[in-house]
Protein backbone atom coordinates (compact mmCIF):
# COMPACT_ATOMS: atom_id res chain seq x y z
CA UNK A 1 0.00 0.00 0.00
CA UNK A 2 1.32 3.43 -0.81
CA UNK A 3 2.50 5.52 2.11
CA UNK A 4 3.46 9.17 2.40
CA UNK A 5 4.62 11.55 5.01
CA UNK A 6 3.82 15.24 5.22
CA UNK A 7 6.88 16.76 6.81
CA UNK A 8 7.08 20.28 8.20
CA UNK A 9 3.33 20.48 7.87
CA UNK A 10 2.62 23.68 9.92
CA UNK A 11 2.14 24.69 13.49
CA UNK A 12 -1.49 25.33 12.59
CA UNK A 13 -2.20 21.63 12.06
CA UNK A 14 -3.83 21.25 15.45
CA UNK A 15 -5.42 18.55 17.57
CA UNK A 16 -4.29 15.59 15.54
CA UNK A 17 -4.71 17.31 12.16
CA UNK A 18 -8.30 18.49 12.43
CA UNK A 19 -7.71 21.80 10.66
CA UNK A 20 -5.19 24.24 9.19
CA UNK A 21 -4.77 27.97 9.80
CA UNK A 22 -4.67 29.90 6.54
CA UNK A 23 -2.42 32.64 7.91
CA UNK A 24 0.68 30.48 8.47
CA UNK A 25 3.22 31.46 5.74
CA UNK A 26 5.33 28.27 5.81
CA UNK A 27 4.90 26.07 2.74
CA UNK A 28 4.41 22.35 3.49
CA UNK A 29 6.87 19.66 2.49
CA UNK A 30 5.65 16.35 1.07
CA UNK A 31 7.48 13.03 1.07
CA UNK A 32 6.10 10.09 -0.87
CA UNK A 33 7.16 6.46 -0.79
CA UNK A 34 5.60 3.86 -3.08
CA UNK A 35 5.28 0.19 -2.15
CA UNK A 36 2.33 -0.84 -4.32
CA UNK A 37 0.55 1.10 -7.03
CA UNK A 38 -3.26 1.17 -7.11
CA UNK A 39 -4.52 2.22 -10.53
CA UNK A 40 -8.19 2.82 -11.35
CA UNK A 41 -9.33 3.59 -14.88
CA UNK A 42 -12.32 3.45 -17.21
CA UNK A 43 -12.62 2.24 -20.79
CA UNK A 44 -15.05 3.79 -23.25
CA UNK A 45 -15.77 3.53 -26.95
CA UNK A 46 -15.74 6.39 -29.45
CA UNK A 47 -19.26 7.39 -28.36
CA UNK A 48 -18.38 7.55 -24.67
CA UNK A 49 -20.11 4.31 -23.71
CA UNK A 50 -18.43 2.26 -20.99
CA UNK A 51 -16.85 -1.04 -22.01
CA UNK A 52 -17.34 -3.84 -19.50
CA UNK A 53 -16.28 -7.45 -19.33
CA UNK A 54 -12.60 -6.99 -20.18
CA UNK A 55 -10.18 -9.41 -18.51
CA UNK A 56 -6.64 -9.01 -17.14
CA UNK A 57 -5.24 -10.52 -20.34
CA UNK A 58 -6.82 -7.67 -22.31
CA UNK A 59 -4.61 -5.08 -20.59
CA UNK A 60 -0.96 -4.21 -20.47
CA UNK A 61 0.26 -1.72 -17.87
CA UNK A 62 3.46 0.19 -18.58
CA UNK A 63 5.48 2.48 -16.37
CA UNK A 64 8.02 4.57 -18.29
CA UNK A 65 7.61 2.00 -21.05
CA UNK A 66 8.40 -0.91 -18.72
CA UNK A 67 5.73 -3.62 -18.67
CA UNK A 68 4.36 -4.21 -15.17
CA UNK A 69 3.11 -7.48 -13.72
CA UNK A 70 -0.38 -7.02 -12.34
CA UNK A 71 -0.91 -8.24 -8.79
CA UNK A 72 -4.71 -7.91 -8.55
CA UNK A 73 -7.50 -7.03 -10.96
CA UNK A 74 -11.10 -5.97 -10.35
CA UNK A 75 -14.00 -4.71 -12.44
CA UNK A 76 -16.51 -2.41 -10.73
CA UNK A 77 -17.53 -3.90 -7.40
CA UNK A 78 -16.97 -7.51 -8.44
CA UNK A 79 -14.73 -9.71 -6.32
CA UNK A 80 -11.12 -8.99 -7.31
CA UNK A 81 -8.77 -11.68 -8.51
CA UNK A 82 -5.08 -12.17 -7.89
CA UNK A 83 -2.59 -13.06 -10.62
CA UNK A 84 -0.37 -15.95 -9.55
CA UNK A 85 3.17 -16.61 -10.73
CA UNK A 86 2.03 -19.32 -13.15
CA UNK A 87 -0.44 -16.94 -14.80
CA UNK A 88 -3.57 -18.41 -13.23
CA UNK A 89 -6.18 -16.30 -11.45
CA UNK A 90 -7.73 -16.81 -8.05
CA UNK A 91 -10.11 -14.76 -5.90
CA UNK A 92 -8.37 -12.76 -3.20
CA UNK A 93 -8.35 -14.57 0.14
CA UNK A 94 -11.12 -13.64 2.56
CA UNK A 95 -10.36 -16.06 5.37
CA UNK A 96 -9.06 -14.11 8.37
CA UNK A 97 -6.47 -16.83 9.04
CA UNK A 98 -4.95 -16.21 5.59
CA UNK A 99 -4.65 -12.43 5.85
CA UNK A 100 -0.95 -12.52 6.67
CA UNK A 101 -0.25 -14.50 3.51
CA UNK A 102 -1.64 -12.06 0.98
CA UNK A 103 -4.07 -9.24 0.19
CA UNK A 104 -7.68 -9.76 1.17
CA UNK A 105 -10.78 -9.18 -0.92
CA UNK A 106 -12.64 -7.07 1.62
CA UNK A 107 -10.09 -4.27 1.19
CA UNK A 108 -10.72 -4.09 -2.55
CA UNK A 109 -14.47 -4.71 -2.88
CA UNK A 110 -16.35 -1.46 -3.38
CA UNK A 111 -15.06 2.09 -3.40
CA UNK A 112 -14.15 4.31 -0.46
CA UNK A 113 -15.89 7.56 -1.36
CA UNK A 114 -14.84 10.77 0.39
CA UNK A 115 -17.27 13.65 -0.21
CA UNK A 116 -15.83 17.10 0.50
CA UNK A 117 -18.67 19.63 0.77
CA UNK A 118 -18.07 23.38 0.57
CA UNK A 119 -20.08 25.05 3.35
CA UNK A 120 -18.38 28.44 3.09
CA UNK A 121 -20.26 31.68 2.56
CA UNK A 122 -19.75 31.21 -1.18
CA UNK A 123 -22.30 28.39 -1.01
CA UNK A 124 -24.86 30.23 1.10
CA UNK A 125 -27.59 30.54 -1.53
CA UNK A 126 -27.45 26.97 -2.78
CA UNK A 127 -26.60 25.26 0.51
CA UNK A 128 -29.88 23.33 0.96
CA UNK A 129 -30.10 22.20 -2.67
CA UNK A 130 -26.47 21.07 -2.61
CA UNK A 131 -27.06 19.05 0.55
CA UNK A 132 -30.05 17.34 -1.07
CA UNK A 133 -28.06 16.48 -4.20
CA UNK A 134 -25.26 14.96 -2.11
CA UNK A 135 -27.74 12.95 -0.03
CA UNK A 136 -29.35 11.54 -3.18
CA UNK A 137 -25.92 10.59 -4.50
CA UNK A 138 -25.04 8.75 -1.30
CA UNK A 139 -28.35 6.85 -1.33
CA UNK A 140 -27.60 5.64 -4.85
CA UNK A 141 -24.13 4.28 -4.12
CA UNK A 142 -23.55 0.55 -4.32
CA UNK A 143 -23.96 -1.32 -1.03
CA UNK A 144 -20.32 -2.35 -1.23
CA UNK A 145 -19.18 1.27 -1.21
CA UNK A 146 -18.12 3.04 1.97
CA UNK A 147 -18.63 6.78 2.26
CA UNK A 148 -17.31 9.64 4.37
CA UNK A 149 -18.67 13.18 4.41
CA UNK A 150 -16.34 16.09 5.20
CA UNK A 151 -17.36 19.74 5.15
CA UNK A 152 -15.23 22.85 5.06
CA UNK A 153 -15.22 26.59 5.22
CA UNK A 154 -12.11 28.01 6.89
CA UNK A 155 -11.66 24.71 8.77
CA UNK A 156 -12.30 21.08 7.88
CA UNK A 157 -15.02 19.16 9.71
CA UNK A 158 -15.30 15.38 9.52
CA UNK A 159 -19.09 15.26 9.57
CA UNK A 160 -19.21 11.49 9.00
CA UNK A 161 -16.21 9.18 9.11
CA UNK A 162 -15.88 6.41 6.53
CA UNK A 163 -18.81 4.00 7.02
CA UNK A 164 -20.65 1.26 5.15
CA UNK A 165 -23.98 2.49 6.49
CA UNK A 166 -24.95 5.21 4.03
CA UNK A 167 -27.69 6.49 6.32
CA UNK A 168 -25.07 7.35 8.94
CA UNK A 169 -23.20 9.37 6.35
CA UNK A 170 -26.36 11.26 5.40
CA UNK A 171 -27.04 12.01 9.07
CA UNK A 172 -23.61 13.56 9.33
CA UNK A 173 -24.23 15.55 6.16
CA UNK A 174 -27.47 16.98 7.56
CA UNK A 175 -25.60 18.39 10.55
CA UNK A 176 -23.50 20.63 8.30
CA UNK A 177 -23.82 24.36 8.89
CA UNK A 178 -22.75 27.30 6.75
CA UNK A 179 -19.38 28.84 7.59
CA UNK A 180 -17.27 31.80 6.50
CA UNK A 181 -14.14 31.90 4.31
CA UNK A 182 -13.17 28.99 2.07
CA UNK A 183 -9.96 26.99 2.59
CA UNK A 184 -10.62 24.42 -0.13
CA UNK A 185 -7.06 23.25 -0.76
CA UNK A 186 -6.16 22.99 2.92
CA UNK A 187 -9.24 20.82 3.39
CA UNK A 188 -8.63 18.77 0.27
CA UNK A 189 -5.10 17.97 1.45
CA UNK A 190 -6.38 16.72 4.81
CA UNK A 191 -9.07 14.67 3.07
CA UNK A 192 -6.47 13.07 0.80
CA UNK A 193 -4.32 12.26 3.83
CA UNK A 194 -7.25 10.41 5.41
CA UNK A 195 -8.10 8.61 2.18
CA UNK A 196 -4.50 7.51 1.67
CA UNK A 197 -4.63 5.51 4.91
CA UNK A 198 -7.45 3.34 3.59
CA UNK A 199 -6.55 0.25 1.54
CA UNK A 200 -8.23 -0.46 -1.76
CA UNK A 201 -9.89 1.89 -4.21
CA UNK A 202 -10.82 5.39 -3.11
CA UNK A 203 -12.01 8.63 -4.68
CA UNK A 204 -12.56 12.18 -3.48
CA UNK A 205 -15.59 14.14 -4.69
CA UNK A 206 -15.36 17.89 -4.20
CA UNK A 207 -18.61 19.89 -4.24
CA UNK A 208 -17.66 23.56 -4.23
CA UNK A 209 -18.50 26.99 -5.52
CA UNK A 210 -14.88 27.36 -6.51
CA UNK A 211 -13.02 30.33 -4.97
CA UNK A 212 -10.48 29.74 -2.21
CA UNK A 213 -9.52 32.71 -0.04
CA UNK A 214 -8.08 31.05 3.07
CA UNK A 215 -5.72 28.20 2.11
CA UNK A 216 -1.98 28.15 2.70
CA UNK A 217 -1.23 25.24 0.36
CA UNK A 218 -1.02 25.56 -3.41
CA UNK A 219 -3.56 23.57 -5.47
CA UNK A 220 -0.87 21.92 -7.61
CA UNK A 221 0.93 20.65 -4.50
CA UNK A 222 -2.33 19.06 -3.37
CA UNK A 223 -2.94 17.67 -6.84
CA UNK A 224 0.52 16.07 -6.82
CA UNK A 225 -0.30 14.21 -3.59
CA UNK A 226 -3.54 12.86 -5.10
CA UNK A 227 -1.71 11.90 -8.28
CA UNK A 228 1.03 10.07 -6.39
CA UNK A 229 -1.45 8.34 -4.10
CA UNK A 230 -3.66 7.21 -6.97
CA UNK A 231 -6.78 8.95 -5.67
CA UNK A 232 -9.02 10.29 -8.47
CA UNK A 233 -10.60 13.66 -7.73
CA UNK A 234 -14.04 14.46 -9.13
CA UNK A 235 -15.12 18.10 -8.89
CA UNK A 236 -18.63 19.51 -9.10
CA UNK A 237 -18.42 23.28 -9.28
CA UNK A 238 -21.45 25.53 -8.90
CA UNK A 239 -19.53 28.62 -9.99
CA UNK A 240 -19.86 30.53 -13.23
CA UNK A 241 -16.87 29.53 -15.36
CA UNK A 242 -16.76 32.93 -17.01
CA UNK A 243 -16.60 34.77 -13.68
CA UNK A 244 -14.02 32.51 -12.08
CA UNK A 245 -11.72 31.17 -14.82
CA UNK A 246 -8.85 30.59 -12.38
CA UNK A 247 -10.77 28.09 -10.24
CA UNK A 248 -12.19 26.47 -13.37
CA UNK A 249 -8.68 25.96 -14.76
CA UNK A 250 -7.44 24.50 -11.47
CA UNK A 251 -10.40 22.12 -11.27
CA UNK A 252 -9.79 20.89 -14.81
CA UNK A 253 -6.12 20.29 -14.07
CA UNK A 254 -6.70 18.53 -10.75
CA UNK A 255 -9.37 16.21 -12.13
CA UNK A 256 -7.61 15.28 -15.38
CA UNK A 257 -4.25 14.66 -13.72
CA UNK A 258 -5.72 12.30 -11.15
CA UNK A 259 -8.03 10.32 -13.47
CA UNK A 260 -11.22 12.04 -12.32
CA UNK A 261 -13.57 14.51 -14.01
CA UNK A 262 -14.88 18.04 -13.49
CA UNK A 263 -18.48 19.21 -13.89
CA UNK A 264 -19.69 22.79 -13.96
CA UNK A 265 -23.24 22.65 -12.63
CA UNK A 266 -24.92 25.87 -11.54
CA UNK A 267 -28.43 24.41 -11.26
CA UNK A 268 -29.70 21.68 -8.96
CA UNK A 269 -30.64 19.52 -11.96
CA UNK A 270 -27.13 19.78 -13.41
CA UNK A 271 -25.69 18.85 -10.03
CA UNK A 272 -27.88 15.74 -9.88
CA UNK A 273 -26.75 14.80 -13.40
CA UNK A 274 -23.11 15.29 -12.41
CA UNK A 275 -23.48 12.99 -9.41
CA UNK A 276 -25.18 10.39 -11.60
CA UNK A 277 -22.28 10.56 -14.04
CA UNK A 278 -19.79 10.05 -11.20
CA UNK A 279 -21.76 7.10 -9.83
CA UNK A 280 -21.80 5.53 -13.30
CA UNK A 281 -18.06 6.06 -13.66
CA UNK A 282 -17.35 4.36 -10.32
CA UNK A 283 -19.52 1.38 -11.23
CA UNK A 284 -17.80 0.89 -14.56
CA UNK A 285 -14.16 1.31 -13.60
CA UNK A 286 -11.37 -1.24 -13.50
CA UNK A 287 -8.81 -1.35 -10.68
CA UNK A 288 -5.41 -3.04 -10.84
CA UNK A 289 -2.56 -3.16 -8.38
CA UNK A 290 1.08 -3.87 -9.11
CA UNK A 291 4.49 -3.66 -7.51
CA UNK A 292 6.65 -1.48 -9.80
CA UNK A 293 9.37 -3.25 -11.74
CA UNK A 294 12.92 -1.96 -11.17
CA UNK A 295 13.18 1.57 -12.55
CA UNK A 296 15.99 4.08 -11.91
CA UNK A 297 13.63 7.02 -12.42
CA UNK A 298 12.95 8.68 -9.06
CA UNK A 299 11.03 11.52 -10.69
CA UNK A 300 7.67 11.43 -12.44
CA UNK A 301 6.90 8.00 -13.86
CA UNK A 302 4.50 7.87 -16.79
CA UNK A 303 1.74 5.26 -16.62
CA UNK A 304 0.15 3.89 -19.78
CA UNK A 305 -2.75 1.44 -19.98
CA UNK A 306 -2.85 -0.45 -23.27
CA UNK A 307 -5.73 -2.66 -24.40
CA UNK A 308 -3.97 -5.41 -26.29
CA UNK A 309 -7.22 -6.88 -27.58
CA UNK A 310 -8.19 -3.55 -29.18
CA UNK A 311 -6.43 -4.02 -32.50
CA UNK A 312 -8.17 -1.06 -34.13
CA UNK A 313 -7.40 1.25 -31.18
CA UNK A 314 -11.01 2.42 -31.00
CA UNK A 315 -11.28 2.25 -27.23
CA UNK A 316 -10.25 5.05 -24.89
CA UNK A 317 -8.77 4.78 -21.41
CA UNK A 318 -9.13 7.47 -18.73
CA UNK A 319 -6.52 7.13 -15.99
CA UNK A 320 -4.01 9.25 -14.15
CA UNK A 321 -0.91 9.89 -16.30
CA UNK A 322 1.60 8.83 -13.67
CA UNK A 323 3.07 9.42 -10.21
CA UNK A 324 6.25 10.22 -8.34
CA UNK A 325 7.78 7.47 -6.18
CA UNK A 326 9.64 10.11 -4.16
CA UNK A 327 8.54 13.71 -4.27
CA UNK A 328 9.57 16.83 -2.48
CA UNK A 329 7.79 20.16 -2.52
- SSE pattern, N- to C-terminal: EEEEEEEEEHEEHHEHEHEHEEEE
Structurally, the number of domains stands at: 1
Number of helices: 6
Lateral strand order in the biggest sheet: 8-7-6-15-3-17
Strand proportion, as a percent range, falls in 25-35%
CATH class equals Alpha Beta
Number of strands: 18
The CATH superfamily is: von Willebrand factor, type A domain
Provide the structure class: alpha+beta
Radius of gyration: 19 Å
Ends apart, CA distance between termini: 22 Å
Q: Please, what is the average pLDDT?
A: 84
Describe the structure concisely.
The chain has helices at residues 127-139, 166-174, 184-196, 219-229, 245-258, 268-283; strands spanning 3-7, 29-33, 37-44, 59-63, 66-68, 70-75, 81-83, 89-91, 112-118, 146-152, 156-163, 202-208, 233-237, 262-264, 285-290, 301-307, 316-318, 322-323. The chain is α+β, with helices and mostly antiparallel strands. The protein has one domain: von Willebrand factor, type A domain (Rossmann fold, 3-Layer(aba) Sandwich).
What does this structure look like?
It is a single chain. By secondary structure, the chain is of the alpha+beta class. It has a single domain (1-84, 103-329), classed as von Willebrand factor, type A domain (Rossmann fold, 3-Layer(aba) Sandwich). Helices cover 23% and strands 28% of the residues. The protein is built from six helices and 18 strands. The strands form four sheets. It has a six-stranded antiparallel β-sheet with strand order 8-7-6-15-3-17. It has a six-stranded mixed β-sheet with strand order 11-10-9-12-13-14, with helices on both faces. A four-stranded antiparallel β-sheet has the order 5-4-16-18. The longest helix is centred in the C-terminal third of the chain and has 16 residues, at 268-283. The chain starts with a strand and ends in a 6-residue tail after the last strand. Residues 1-25, 28-32 and 95-104 have low confidence and may be disordered.
Amino acid sequence: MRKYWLCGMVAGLAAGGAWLHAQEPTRPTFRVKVDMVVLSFTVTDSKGRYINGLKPADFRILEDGIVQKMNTFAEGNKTPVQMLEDGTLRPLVVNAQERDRGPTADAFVGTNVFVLFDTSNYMYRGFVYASDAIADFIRGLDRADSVAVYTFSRNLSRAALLVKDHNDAIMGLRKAVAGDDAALYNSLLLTLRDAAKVPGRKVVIVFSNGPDNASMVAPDDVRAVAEDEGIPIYVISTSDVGRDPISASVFRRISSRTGGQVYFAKTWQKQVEAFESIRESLGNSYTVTYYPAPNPNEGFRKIAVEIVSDVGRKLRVRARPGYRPHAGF
